[in-house]
Amino acid sequence: MNISNYLNKKQDSSSLAIFRLGFGFLMLFSVIRIWYKGWIKELYIDPSFHFSYYGFEWIKPIGDYTYLIFLICGISSFCVAIGYKYRISIILLFLSFTYAELMDKTTYLNHYYLVSLISFLMIFFPANASFSLDNLINKKSYRIIPKWNVDALKLMICIVYFYAGIAKINTDWLMDAQPLKIWLTSKYDLPIIGNKFFQMDLVHIFFSWAGMFYDVFISFILLYRRTRPFGFFLVITFHIMTAIFFPAIGMFPYIMITSSIIFLEPETHKKLLNKCFTLFKKFFKKISIVEVYNYKRPKITQIVLIFFFIIQLVFPFRYFLYPGELFWNEQGYRFSWRVMLIEKKGFTEFKIVDRETSNSFYVLNENFLTEFQVRQMSFQPDFILEFAHYIGDYYNNNGYSDVEVYAESYVTLNGRTSKLFVDPNVDLMKEKRGFSNKKWITRLEDEIKGF
Q1: β-strands 288-292, 10-12: how paired?
Q2: Most CB within 10 Å of its CB: which of 119, 151, 353, 449?
Q3: pLDDT score for 282
Q4: Within the chain, which residues score under 70 in pLDDT?
Q5: For position 284, what pLDDT does the model report?
Q6: Does residue 38 lie in a domain region?
Q7: What is the reported pLDDT for 276?
Q8: Across the strands, what pairs with 248?
């Protein structure tokens, strides 16, 4: 089969419609959850300082108006779900959610990144072609869409799973069952299984290997029609267990369960939607059905998506450009689908030295950061450097002249003994933020073999 024949293949539009409904309502629930728990105020409004992504320092919370960003995100999520003004709604969802994600690096989670990518992809798909409010307004729906629309969403989910799987093929995860051993043994208070079952080394090894095999092979199981029912059983079982045992992972299990619905057969999607829309059938009877949805400029959309997926396939391997141990220096760690691979804790304090007088003193991090920010900063190199520049600039502007900033930092990785993390003799004010190798990070003596 050549590319031209594939691009001309069609599929029932109900597949995109059911994905739109699931994704939209799940995003609406996520925004309500964030608002209800008070995280908007706690994470974005109360802190006086926010850790930024390099190149996106201009994206910051906007005081009490930050609530407006999440309000737009919530409303646009609902509109996406019901298919109202779909193109505008999905663009607003992508922009508002991504803005919220970029406001503070401290809150980074893999599934936030995934939501931004999926919402970006959906901008280019006619997910409102059927079973949408736009159909009722325009009195027109489309029965057939290009098959590559649905396949692009499948590919995105497959990349997440497969890359997460091959990242687990490392000696820490498979040989030492780390960091899973740390997390499971901490669940000793769970009834029946916590006190004994989760304390057994064999159990830690089993869950580590099972997690790796699941991530590597689940995409192939879902893609193959005969094994798909078993695949869905695995998806639901795996992610429900993850949600129960590791609640800190947030919405990720539910996003993956919902996203996996796209792998169902189009006939199944249509049957599910027909049952859900039984009460609205009399309204949809008045709509004229157009056989096929045709893009006005399909080649432009296809080129954009090709570049998008090239980036998704290559970008996670950028860590090869850096020397040293990835889990230790984290250079190229984010945005690479490395899920639940490290447990790091650290202690980092900063010494300010006045170059003119040679007087020095130590900074109390809590005077500038929240407790959550202090924890995240203490073991992540780019956080340490950004905060060092921030406090250096602060004291330069408040009575001191040309200060030097030194860090005394000790970090433990996946149960290892805590060791020196930052060269204490390096003036961090002279180190520039960016993508260059951070030579001031010490080397991890242990070698973690794997991808």
Answers
A1: unpaired
A2: 119
A3: 62
A4: 1, 279-286, 288
A5: 64
A6: yes
A7: 75
A8: none
Among candidate residues 108, 136, 164, the one where a domain is terminated: 136
Q: Integer distance in angstroms from the first to the last C-alpha of the chain?
A: 33
Residue 417 lies in a domain: yes
The parent domain of residue 129 ranges over 11-136
CB 14 within 8 A of CB 131: yes
Write down the pLDDT at residue 149. 94
What is the model's pLDDT at position 223? 94
pLDDT score for 216: 96
Q: What are phi and psi of 350, to 5 degrees?
A: -120, 140
The residues near 395 (Cβ < 8 Å, ≥ 6 apart) are 352, 403
Instruction: Tell me, yes or no, whether 67 lies in a domain.
Output: yes
Query: Total structural domains in the chain?
Result: 2
User: What residue has token string 């304390």?
Assistant: 199
What local confidence, expressed as pLDDT, does residue 279 receive? 64
The pLDDT, as a whole number, for residue 188 is 78
What is the C-alpha to C-alpha distance for residues 53 and 150, in angstroms, rounded to an integer?
Answer: 31
Last residue of a domain, one of 105, 136, 167: 136
- The pLDDT value given to residue 283: 61
Reading the block at residue 83, the tokens are 């298919």
Planar angle of CA 319, 322, 323, nearest 5 degrees: 125
Three-class secondary structure assignment of the chain: CCHHHHHCCEEECHHHHHHHHHHHHHHHHHHHHHHHCCHHHHHHHCCCCCCCCCCCCCCCCCHHHHHHHHHHHHHHHHHHHHCCCHHHHHHHHHHHHHHHHHCCHHHCCHHHHHHHHHHHHHCCCCCCCCCCHHHHHHCEEEEEEEHHHHHHHHHHHHHHHHHHHHHCCEHHHHCCCCCHHHHHHCCCCCCCCCCCHHHCHHHHHHHHHHHHHHHHHHHHHHHCHHHHHHHHHHHHHHHHHHHHHCHHHCCHHHHHHHHHHHHCCHHHHHHHHHHHCHHHHHHHCCCEEEEECCCCCHHHHHHHHHHHHHHHHHHHHHHHHCCCCHHHHCCCCCCCCCCCCCCEEEEEEEEEEECCCCCEEECCHHHCCCHHHHHHHCCCHHHHHHHHHHHHHHHHCCCCCCEEEEEEEEEEECCCCCEECECCCCCHHHCCCCCCCCCCECCCCCCCCEC
- What pLDDT is recorded for position 139? 85
The amino acid occupying position 44 is Y
